[in-house]
Design brief:
- Helix 2 packs across helix 5, helix 4 packs antiparallel against helix 5 and helix 9 (about 295-315) runs antiparallel to helix 10.
- The protein has about 375 residues and is an alpha+beta fold.
- The two termini are about 45 Å apart.
- It has helices spanning about 1-40, 45-70, 85-95, 95-135, 145-160, 165-225, 225-255, 255-275, 295-315, 350-360; strands spanning about 275-280, 320-325, 330-335, 365, 375-380.
Length: about 375
């Protein structure tokens, strides 16, 4: 009973602040009407963009309220009010986000007050009925939870009205895809340059040395067989070094261990060779069909890069890797008990991880407070 009363009280406070926002909306709509009249009269045209900015701030307040109650963020999408006065007025009048804010303001005037009145009226019967129902009958509350439902309805309506329009979300999505495409192209170019550098500095150099030794051995074969034999032995060592370098390059493109053992087995191999005490939890990642090759490769390189960072920068001795399967998603979480403070652009490899994940339309979350621990969580879209 006490928990139900506390939750109903919290919901009432939420509805009370919603009613306060409704009163502000009343003032805001009056301000907008005055701004529209002044704009029509020309001499007060500069007031309209400022009124729209004020409306956006009020809508932002409601977005934060709805997000705090529901636990789901409410995004916003506005056209910037910049440029000349004429351009600012045109944007203020035609911006779809501001139009949705105006519709929300009118609706908030109604449901913000009505839902609060409904909650206040419900309190009396709820205390009587639920007091008897819980105190004497020992049952769960019946009416008090309805007050929380009213707060849920208020937050849900605000979220629905304040979400960006489909056109704005489409434009934002196109912009996001443009950025991720550019990052993917940059990452691809960097990968090609890395492969070229590895081939030039490693395998190619060994093959050139191998060719020279074979030529020297061929000339010395008739005159000095012992020297020729020694050169051939050196050429064999050089060939083995070239093969080792080529295997290293191949592993950098697509590790063969992924094909042989799958993602879980490859991650265990990474953990065993990392030099840290790494606990691997695969969860249900080994059950059912495997993820596509591109998704497995991205997950493998995320784990490899993160463990390498932990060895180089964190000073950690222990780490943990967790793989998880969700509907349409592959989840990877890597945690190290190091000093924390991981930042992009300081040789940590986080930028490369973000670009590789963004190319597959995935997400990366990094939590690395000073003193640790560092936790990197990655989600990759995956059709199981």
């Amino acid at each position: 009973m006490r928990a139900a009363v506390r939750e109903a009280g919290r919901a009432t406070v939420h509805l009370l602040t919603g009613a306060g926002v409704a009163l502000l909306c009343h003032l805001m709509l009056g301000f907008l009407m005055v701004a529209a009249v002044l704009t029509a009269a020309v001499f007060g045209a500069a007031v309209l963009p400022e009124a729209v900015l004020t409306l956006r701030r009020l809508a932002g307040l409601e977005r934060r309220r709805a997000a705090a109650w529901s636990g789901e963020p409410v995004p916003e999408a506005y056209e910037p009010l910049t440029g000349t006065l004429r351009e600012r007025i045109r944007t203020a009048v035609h911006d779809p986000g501001s139009k949705r804010d105006l519709i929300w303001g009118g609706a908030q005037l109604l449901y913000g007050m009505v839902l609060l009145y409904a909650a206040l009226i419900l309190w009396g019967p709820a205390l009587l009925v639920d007091g008897f129902w819980c105190g004497l009958a020992g049952r769960r509350p019946v009416l008090l939870p309805l007050i929380g439902r009213l707060a849920d309805v208020e937050a849900s309506w605000s979220r629905t009205l304040l979400l960006p329009s489909p056109e704005a979300r489409l434009a934002e999505r196109i912009e996001q895809l443009t950025v991720t495409r550019a990052d993917a192209v940059a990452a691809h170019g960097a990968e090609l340059r890395r492969i070229e550098r590895d081939l030039h500095d490693g395998a190619q150099a060994h093959l050139v040395a191998l060719s020279m030794r074979l030529g020297l051995a061929r000339r010395a074969y008739g005159k000095d067989p012992e020297t020729a034999l020694r050169l051939l032995e050196q050429a064999q060592d050089q060939a083995e070094s070239a093969l080792t370098e080529l295997r290293h390059v191949v592993r950098g493109i697509h590790p063969p261990i992924l094909t042989d053992r799958g993602l879980a087995g490859a991650v265990r191999a990474l953990a065993a060779s990392s030099g840290l005490d790494v606990a691997v939890e695969t969860g249900g990642a080994e059950d059912g069909p495997r993820a596509p090759a591109a998704v497995e490769a991205a997950a493998y390189f995320v784990v490899a890069e993160t463990l390498t960072n932990a060895v180089k920068h964190s000073g950690a001795r222990r780490a943990a890797v967790e793989l998880g399967r969700a509907p349409g998603r592959l989840r990877i979480a890597v945690r190290d008990e190091g000093c924390g403070g991981a930042e992009e652009g300081r040789g940590s490899g986080l930028l490369g991880i973000r670009r590789r994940v963004a190319a597959l339309d995935g997400t990366v979350k990094v939590a690395s407070p000073a003193g640790g621990p560092t936790v990197i969580e990655v989600e990759l879209p995956c059709a199981w």
